[in-house]
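Researcher: I'm preparing a figure for a lab meeting and need a structural model of a single chain. I don't have an experimental structure, so a prediction will have to do for now. The sequence is pasted below. Please return the structure as tokens so I can convert it later.
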Amino acid sequence: WEFDKWHNRTSERFYGPDGKPTVNGKGVHRYEREYDRHEKLSERYWGSDGEPVTDEYGVHFYKYECDGDGLNVSESYYDGEGNPAVNKDGVHRHGWAYNERRRKVAQSFWGVEGPARDAEGVHRYEWTYDGRGHKEASESYFGPGGEPVVDAHGVHRYEWEYDEQGSLVEERTYNVNGDLISVKEKGD
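Model: Understood. Here is the structure written out token by token.
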């Protein structure tokens, strides 16, 4: 292992009992990571022959961007030659937005040429939080043009209510027209 001045692990290699280079269960011999004082900036994967390899998502090189508070706002994927690549879901970049309390309020997916959808068919997820700001109050799904879309269960929006102790007491689901689909209460 190798570490940077902030004590982040920047390099990790795998060797067999005979001391010769080997690969882990993901086919990776060496990980290389770069950090700034806030967060990981990049991660790359190499085989025992020194050639670039991909992880289980089909990516060789991850690049991360952080805002001034150190929150991850973007994660992009590249092949072994530094060209833009897509993961197994066809996504090249994830983007995140946060509220003033540093809570994630949106996540979106992008291809190399423009908007993309994740495996669920969603381009953008949006979240809201309860009055205390520490529990998700809703989750909604949108397509590339901002149009409401549904998840695998036919739901566009989930809403949750919590009691004073922070325990979930009710879940409501809605379709793309805003019509109530179902209500589940604590104990159902």
